[in-house]
Design goal:
By secondary structure, the chain is mostly helical. The protein contains eight helices and no strands.
């Protein structure tokens, strides 16, 4: 379960960093100083968190095949966080037009990491399924949380995908609907964690951590959606 949890958090930071990049571009366009400060802080926080979650994942007693996938993911993660950091700095220091003119390397890094994390996630899911067979009750709890976690990540990814394929008249109403779905999924996850608290406090705690992360990324989705609407 710890592997599923940390993999989910890595994936959230992957999507969350892209939201911060677009947030910085909007902040530059609008001259919103508060948003600029948030973007500077969040690009550092999300990048650091992504590496912490990946390291925690690597420190777990996992199959060697999964360990290899994690090691192969590290340079791809570094490339992505570096590109995101550079783009945010460019947007905030030199303007949104400069950032948009140099966004291609960031988009490429995002896509490469998406593929790598997808492969890693599949291996971890397989390992979690095999491990859950050791206890029917435990496996049932883990499956409930895993479904909730994966639902949140899927909704976040679908929502943020609008920003790569959008034009200025992107479907903001749909974006807002997605942010509401994220909030609902987060509430469902919290409910699941409460239901399991009596039988597994550790699992409940892990679910709450991921729920909090989902709420933070959702906040950035709403900020970006509102910014584009303006």
């Amino acid at each position: 379960m710890q592997a599923v949890r940390n993999m989910t958090l890595v994936d959230m930071m992957h999507d969350g960093l892209r939201a911060v990049v677009y947030k910085s571009i909007i902040a530059s366009q609008t001259g919103n100083q508060e948003m600029k400060t948030e973007a500077r802080d969040e690009i550092k926080e999300f990048s650091e968190n992504m590496n912490v979650y990946l390291k925690t994942l690597n420190d777990l007693p996992l199959d060697q095949k999964i360990k290899k996938e994690i090691q192969e993911s590290k340079p791809v993660v570094d490339n992505y966080t570096q590109n995101a950091t550079k783009l945010v700095a460019l947007a905030l220091d030199e303007g949104s037009s400069q950032a948009l003119a140099n966004i291609e390397p960031f988009d490429k890094a995002f896509g490469e990491l998406e593929v790598k994390l997808g492969q890693l996630g599949e291996e971890i899911e397989k390992g979690a399924e095999e491990s859950s067979l050791t206890s029917i009750e435990e496996g049932s709890n883990y499956n409930l949380v895993s479904i909730a976690l994966l639902s949140i990540v899927s909704i976040l990814s679908a929502g943020l995908w609008f920003f790569i394929n959008r034009d200025i008249k992107s479907p903001i109403d749909a974006m807002i609907k997605i942010s509401q779905d994220v909030a609902n999924a987060s509430q469902q996850l919290t409910s699941v964690s409460h239901q399991m608290s009596s039988s597994s406090e550790e699992t409940s705690s892990q679910a709450r951590v991921v729920s909090s992360a989902a709420e933070l990324v959702n906040k950035n989705i709403q900020t970006v959606a509102t910014g584009w609407n303006k």
